[in-house]
Write a structure and sequence with these properties.
The chain is an alpha/beta fold and about 300 residues long. About 40% of the residues lie in helices and about 15% in strands. Helix 5 (about 145-155) runs parallel beside helix 6 and helix 5 (about 145-155) crosses helix 10 (about 255-270).
Length: about 300
Amino acid sequence: MADTPELIVATDMCPVAEFRGHLPRRLASIPIVLYMHEHQFGYPTPHAAKERDEHLAMTNIMSVLAADGVWWNSRYTLESFLDGARSLLRRMPPPRMRSRLDAVEGVSRVLSPGVDDELFTMPRRERASVHLLWNARWEYDKGADVVATALEMLAERGVAFTCDLVGPATGEDPSMAKLRGALGERVIRFGRQSQDGYRAALAEADFVLSAARHECFGIAIVEAVACGAVPAVPRGLAYPDVLADVPAIWHDGTGEGLCEVLARACEERSREVNRNGVGRYAWSERASELDTHTERVILEQNGA
């Protein structure tokens, strides 16, 4: 049939094993590739949360085992998944599923997402003082509380800076208003932005901040680095791999630690970064590799 696809691409939230069972007969033989942007192993929970529900983690495992190919956005995502899955399955009786995990790497490929090519050539906009950018979701897993502590401490020390806090929030968080009030006129942009507003924030940033507790790639950081910002990020998670060719500023994941590295950076005014250090994430590069691997999966499933 003309409308029969050659490949189905599912994301990490899709239960691939169940999905296969519901496919109509004419689609039953179509290969399925699972793209793992993240997984449930190691996902941080607030201190007040109860014990983690491992149902979604098991869904991740079953989906990976049921797919014909698995693509991962970073080496960190793949390796942390395998570590978490093996740890979970060691607490369960069937050894056969544990042994099947050994075959996962054979059908896995690390295929990172991309950012717009235009970001790499977008003109920089310099401000009078050092300009900081935080462009993550205002949520616990992204370390919003750590960033708030660091910026308040930086202001209390009298460091000259302005900032954009452009991450969206999924609910009302009083700490957002509190931080905005504490920083006053230092805050230039706040909350969700239009595309033009967000790109202006990227173009003006001297340093882009992360205090993430869970990060499998960090596309917002890559966007800012592509525009010339220096990343100040935790030493761990996906960052050492994703930013391997970028002179990042590393911190220990605490508000105090982030404040210290930012204070030194603002004093030294060391704002130069090699935008081409993340050049491999330009969509013109990523799309070509994704096309190649898509064709390879289709040919392998057709016996070519």
